Amino acid sequence: MKKLKSYYQEILFFLGFIVLSLLLTYPLIFRMGSSFYGYQGDPLGVIYGLWRMKYTWQHSLPYYFNALVASPFGIDYSGSIRIPFLQFFAKWLTILTNEIIAYNLIILLSFPLAGITMYYLVHRFTKNKVASFFSGIIFAFSPYHFAHAWAHLGLANIQWMPLYVLLLFRLDENRTYWNAVLCAVAFTLNAFFDPHYGYFMVVLTGAFLFFKLFCWWKHRQWSAAGFQSLFKGIKVGLVGVVVALAIILPFQYRTFKIAFFESKTQAIDAQGYVRPFKDLFTSGAKIGGYLLPAVEHPVFGKLTRKLVDSWFYSARWGENALYLGYVPMALAIVTIIGWRRRRRRAVNQPSAGSHQSPDFIVGFFVFLALVALAFSHAPWIEIGGFRILFPSYFMYKILPAMRAYQRFGILVMLSVSVLAGIGLSDILKKTGKMKWRLGLSGLVIVLVLFEFWNWPPYRVTDVSRTPPVYKWLAEQPGDFTIAEYPLSSDISFKYYYYLFWQRIHRKPLINGAMPGTYAEKVRKEIVNIADPRTAGILRWLGAKYVIFHPDKYLREYEATAVIGEIPDVSKVAGLRFVREFGDVKVYKVVAQAVKPGIR
Asked: Which of 126, 284, 350, 425 has the most CB atoms at less than 10 Å from its CB?
């Protein structure tokens, strides 16, 4: 009966995570098929990718070659970094529903799942359901999670990190091959939902092993039993590594080969294998990100906004949404103080190197937070002419594909979530009456939710209305190609808009050529729509219509000699005006085909 009651309590807590997820992403649940969660930008490109998964499946086409962009050449994505678990899950979810619903479901599910996995991790250490629920709230509804849920589908899936840490501690407690396999699977879940998280779990594992060996050395566990335990740990750990590699390599062999063994070309670099070193400075965390409420906070965000792009707070405020919350930090400090006091008093407890030791548990998460803080920093800081180097400086030489080291902040948040849960559990044990325990628990939960609050305004983008020009294109018979101007070299971010609405009209685009390819050389020949040769080359490429967006020239840095200057297309001889849809104009390509003068 007691066990059944415990299950009912857990179900209530899990329902709490679901209700909070629906509330804090409101009104998404009522607009699952007509809006998406987040801002315009990267989500438009991701949703397009989900649609293309379904499109290629329906038409028996290869997914890693896209003939719908950079027409008539297409783009070969076979060398792209793959995220198989997310792609597999997203593909079939999209096939069963549609790309908008699939995107929203994946984002929405990440919130309760993150809460539940953190719940189980903290419950392992505290055996306190309320404290575990509190830790789940901190982790699941952290500003970091929301910031990436608004922009990055893969990075929003933080739920597998607590699961991996839980299984890592379980493996340390019971060193069996089965536990090693489970740990390996949890590791690959992180890596295959986002490559950053695979990298982070490698660093986390390294920190765990280093701290474990340090405790083993410090407490002189040099007995025969100690060495036997160590060798057994190494043996089952190697099994876990082999299993993880066996899962990862079939999918990522080409990725590893390109990343570590092949010379880099412009086309390869464009797929994300090499990032500019300077990006590490703009993508490094600053201390204000951890200490100040997120810019989106409806009350305190105005104060934070004043410090954006300063020595204290990064210019990339979305990436720097690393706020830990003063209530979680205060409870984490309570845990650390109690830990230090216990150590000074030499309280009888299991060996500090044991997985069961409060000394080891608290010490590890403090150590992990410090390691993650160091990794999240920019490559260096200069003090008095002396340069202090941080891990990102060295890691860039090994992994130049990684640039956003701010994202290590999620490991800091993971550590603080665990430490805060332990701190609350310790306080609740010392609180006598049930009503006081419930009152205190409710108070800290409400305070944390307020610290992490991020609306109004709501973070939902309505895409239910198709722009008239794309409706008109969809109605035009035949299979023909279009060119959207400005014809930027970068179809990402600002110009994902072009891809997003290709879902509706389904006409091949000349846009989207990759650097280093022949298609990109041709694009450079026709980037200026007012050039007399442009219309002829467009005809040679097979373009029937040009979709001209005058407003986008105000932000375009490449397509005109003067930034913000809007070309007068009406004077281009090879283009004939067809229709106007608000500010957007449609021209038919009527010039004679002209082959571009390049090789």
From this structure: 284
- Residue 551 CB contacts under 8 Å (≥ 6 apart), including other chains: 583
In a domain, 599, yes or no: no
CA distance readout (Å), 181 to 114, 232, 239, 246: 22, 15, 7, 11
Q: Taking the CA of residue 316 as centre, how many other CA atoms within 13 Å lie in the half-sphere pointing to its CB?
A: 21
Position 224 confidence tier, pLDDT thresholds 50, 70, 90: low
Buried b (16+ CB within 10 A) or exposed e, 330-368: ebbebbbebbeeeeeeeeeeeebbbbebbbbbbbbbbbb
Q: At what angle do helices 434-451 and 326-345 cross, to 10 degrees?
A: 130
Mean pLDDT, residues 489-497: 78
Q: What is the identity of the amino acid at 486?
A: P
Residue 431's Cβ-side half-sphere holds a number of Cα atoms within 13 Å equal to: 15
Per-residue confidence at 159, pLDDT binned at 50, 70, 90? very high
Task: Indicate whether 373 belongs to any domain.
Answer: yes
The whole-angstrom separation of Cα 169 and Cα 311 is 38
**Assigned domain for 538 exists:** no
Tokens of 439: 């009152």
The CA-CA-CA angle for residues 548, 549, 555, to 5°, reads: 135
Confidence of residue 554 (pLDDT cuts 50, 70, 90): confident
Above 70 in pLDDT, residue 270?
no
Q: How many residues are given for the chain?
A: 599
pLDDT at 41: 86
User: Has residue 265 got a pLDDT over 60?
Assistant: no
pLDDT at 168 over 90: yes
Stretch 109-136: mean pLDDT, rounded? 96
Cα(119)–Cα(133) distance, integer angstroms: 5
Distance separating alpha carbons of residues 248 and 143, to the nearest angstrom: 30
Strand ranges in 448-574 using DSSP code E only, listed in sequence order: 460-462, 481-485, 543-548
Give the number of domains in the chain. 1
CA-CA distance, 199 to 400, in Å (whole number)? 12
Of 563, 541, 564, which Cα lies nearest the Cα of 551? 564
Mean pLDDT computed over 330-346 = 85
Residue 8's pLDDT is what? Answer: 82
Map residue 36 onto helix, strand or coil.
Answer: strand
Residue 16: both structure tokens together: 């709490």
192 within some domain: yes
Q: 410 Cβ partners below 8 Å, 6+ apart?
A: 142, 144, 145, 158, 161, 200, 372
Sequence letter at residue 93: L
